[in-house]
Design the sequence.
């Protein structure tokens, strides 16, 4: 038996809670891990609250991120005692995830914990920081440089948005942050945002083409926000789309793409190839100052996960939530 958050769905309904879990709940895998830290992401919040169709197998341990120590390995890639890191691959959705003290995983999903990064700091970054780095790399590969102009970040108070601001600012970009919580402006400026835009200016239906304002954008919102971002990009602009906090719809026209040569780059963090993952994590280890971790993250124990998930979905959580799975209170 081990401690963890378990999501169940049966005749009694949909529910999630902290409980003692039998080892038989763990699914097939060639590496067993003692989990040290996990995180609470927006997708985890949807899974735990049942407000999104995230979980496809029941019972399920949520948690799309984890870092831990290998306790048993049938793979030649990892040995007992190795520290390993995982993001995505359907963990927490179709395969039991990181919000528990144990996990059994496929070795192809794991990468070694990067040198110089503690397990806790790795989860302070988590999928949010990793996704933000993938977005920045996409902008770079499409030719966006600090000299290109302002870069807009939507959903700026969230984990991806917070890290996107910090990474872009570190690389010398002038960052404009879009947020619905204007009282958090000083927090965003402390991360490196040079200007703040109120979310409502982007969240309603807009024109097919708007004034050219930004050279590029990282969008965590989707829906009308993404459409307005595309409409407001400068000629040759690029938007890295990685989230759907406002919605999955995209009510736009082709005008920005065929009249301004705008590029819409989709960012998937779940099934990303191993080489891309290692590149992103190596860049993160080099670029991020440890002071950023304290600025963008807070730590909870397993007993706080369900309540915090509800707050996360309600838009009441800023930045990253690290889960120390050894704490059940």
Sequence:
């Amino acid at each position: 038996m081990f401690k963890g958050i378990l999501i169940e769905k049966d005749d009694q309904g949909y529910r999630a809670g902290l409980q003692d879990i039998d080892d038989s709940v763990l699914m097939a895998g060639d590496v067993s891990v003692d989990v040290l830290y996990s995180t609470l992401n927006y997708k985890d919040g949807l899974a735990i609250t049942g407000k999104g169709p995230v979980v496809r197998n029941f019972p399920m341990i949520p948690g799309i991120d984890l870092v831990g120590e290998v306790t048993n390995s049938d793979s030649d890639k990892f040995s007992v005692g190795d520290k390993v890191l995982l993001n995505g691959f359907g963990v927490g959705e179709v395969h039991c995830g990181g919000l528990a003290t144990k996990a059994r995983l496929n070795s192809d999903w794991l990468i070694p914990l990067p040198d110089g990064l503690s397990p806790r700091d790795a989860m302070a970054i988590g999928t949010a920081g990793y996704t933000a780095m993938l977005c920045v790399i996409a902008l770079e590969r499409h030719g966006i440089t600090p000299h290109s102009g302002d870069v807009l970040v939507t959903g700026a108070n969230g984990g991806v948005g917070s890290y996107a601001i910090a990474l872009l600012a570190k690389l010398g970009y002038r960052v404009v942050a879009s947020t619905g919580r204007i009282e958090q402006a000083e927090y965003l400026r402390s991360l490196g945002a040079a200007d703040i835009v109120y979310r409502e200016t982007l969240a309603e239906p807009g024109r097919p083409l708007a004034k050219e304002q930004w050279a590029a954008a990282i969008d965590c919102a989707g829906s009308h926000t993404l459409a307005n971002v595309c409409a407001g990009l400068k000629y040759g602009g690029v938007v890295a789309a990685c989230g759907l906090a406002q919605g999955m719809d995209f009510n736009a026209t082709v005008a920005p793409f065929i009249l301004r040569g705008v590029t819409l780059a989709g960012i998937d963090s779940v099934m990303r190839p191993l080489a891309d993952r290692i590149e992103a994590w190596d860049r993160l280890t080099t670029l991020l100052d440890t002071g950023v971790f304290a600025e963008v993250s807070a730590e909870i124990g397993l007993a706080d996960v369900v309540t915090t998930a509800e707050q996360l979905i309600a838009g009441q959580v800023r930045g990253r939530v690290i889960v120390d799975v050894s704490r059940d209170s």
Remarks:
- Residues 49 and 310 are 6 Å apart (CA to CA).
- The domain at 2-113+294-324 is CATH 3.90.180.10 (Quinone Oxidoreductase; Chain A, domain 1).
- The two ends are 18 Å apart (CA to CA).
- The first helix runs from residue 42 to 49.
